[in-house]
Amino acid sequence: MGTSCRLVVVPPPGVGREQDARVTHQALTEAEAALRRVEAQMSTWIDATPLSRFNRAPPGERFPLPAPVVHVLRRSRELHAATDGAFDVTCRPLIELWRAAGKSGQLPPPTAIAKARAASSWNVLDLADDGVTKHAPGARVDLGGIAKGYAIDQAVAAMRRAGAHGGLVDVGGDVRVFGQQPSQSPWEIQLRDPSGTGVIGTFPIREGAVCTSGDYFRFAEIAGQRYSHIIDPRSGRPARGVRSATVVAPDALTADAWATALSVLGEAGLDRVPPDLEAVLILGRKGHLRAVATAGFRHLIRDDLPYPTTFR
Ligand code: AMP
Ligand code: MG
Fold first, then answer.
1. Helix 17-42 vs helix 147-161: crossing angle, to nearest 10
2. Whose Cα sits closest to atom 8 in ligand 1?
3. What is the enclosing helix (H) or strand (E) of 128?
4. Hey, which of 231, 258, 265 would you mutate to test ligand 1's pocket, going by the most ligand atoms within 8 Å of its Cβ?
């Protein structure tokens, strides 16, 4: 997935050193295997994954896909509806267009944007339990905004199965924690400053996931301007305005997808966030940053953010 990860396992208390080492080793090994399995199924950076092969396949016939890929596609379609179309894994044609623009340094012509936008649609995909049928030759999907979250959830499940008492899975800064730390205190999450390298806030969390999307870490530069790697499916152009979107959710798949969606929707998107999620957006330009968060986030964060902050 082009990123690094960190795994922490807390063994059950009072089992003795030998058992301790055994559980920890097994939990780490199986969590890593779970992460690699998801990558091998869903990455579009690897040509041989089932998803990459589906993207190259001709239209008209059901293309068999592993159950986990179909599951993530189903959840993606649900999240497409829940986010008013902002989270859209069918926008791979637009993603490829803007990646090529980033490489060449030239903005794509409006006709090319219109064409890629027309090709990016759920209407030309049929999901079945064992595969997907595309009804247009250009249809292809990109799970880059959600597969990492799914992988984190799978790694946590593997740790639990192996007998871990608690643990943390961090893939490129997207995190899920469960159970106890040895100290009994909750896990602590740090929010990174989107305009620098520092930390702008911390909050404790006992159980759940925290994922962040932003344009400050991964972006393209075209004609001297920075463009986000997140596409606004409504305009067919890179999303603008949100420096970082951080979402706290019970599971990482949901947090990952909503963080991407809120990077597109901006402030207005906070009204659509389901009640069991919390979110904070950092908006504006360096030197003029401000934060907007869900009302519940106020009780989560330890100290005030260093920016003017509103809650809604
Ligand atoms: P994330 O870092 O989780 O926000 O994911 C960003 C990645 O998701 C991009 O690099 C694309 O692969 C993909 N992506 C871009 N725009 C969208 C979108 N509007 N909906 C879903 N996935 C997207
Ligand atoms: Mg995401």
1. 150
2. 145
3. strand 125-128
4. 231
Please check whether residue 116 lies inside any domain of the structure. yes
Q: Which of 231, 228, 312, 237 lies closest to 268 in space, CA to CA?
A: 312
Residues 6+ apart with CB under 8 A from 162: 23, 26, 27, 30, 31
> Total structural domains in the chain?
2
Is residue 151 in contact with ligand 1, taking CB distance under 6 Å? no
Asked if residue 296 belongs to a domain, the reply is: yes
145 lines ligand 1 (CB under 6 A): yes
**pLDDT at site 183:** 84
Are residues 191 and 272 both part of a single domain?
yes
Least confident among 15-24, 38-47, 156-165, 275-284: 15-24
| Residue 231 resides in a domain | yes
3-state secondary structure 278-300: EEEEEECCCCCCEEEECCCHHHH
The mean pLDDT of the chain is 94
264 lines ligand 1 (CB under 6 A): yes
User: Quick check: CB of 144 below 6 Å from ligand 1?
Assistant: yes
pLDDT at 217: 66
Sign, Cα dihedral of 272, 238, 192, 45: positive
**Pocket lining: 95 vs ligand 1, CB cutoff 6 Å:** yes
Domain of 233 in residue numbering reads as 186-311
Ligand 1 atom with the shortest distance to the CA of 148: 3
DSSP state of 58: P
**Assigned domain for 230 exists:** yes
CATH number of domain containing 85? 1.10.3980.10
254 Cα–ligand 2 center, Å: 9
Residue nearest to atom 12 of ligand 1 (CA): 144
At residue 295, the pLDDT reads 96
Asked if pLDDT for residue 237 goes beyond 90, the answer is yes
Ligand 1 within 6 A of CB of 174: no
Per-residue model confidence (pLDDT) at position 264? 97
CATH of the domain at 243: 3.10.520.10
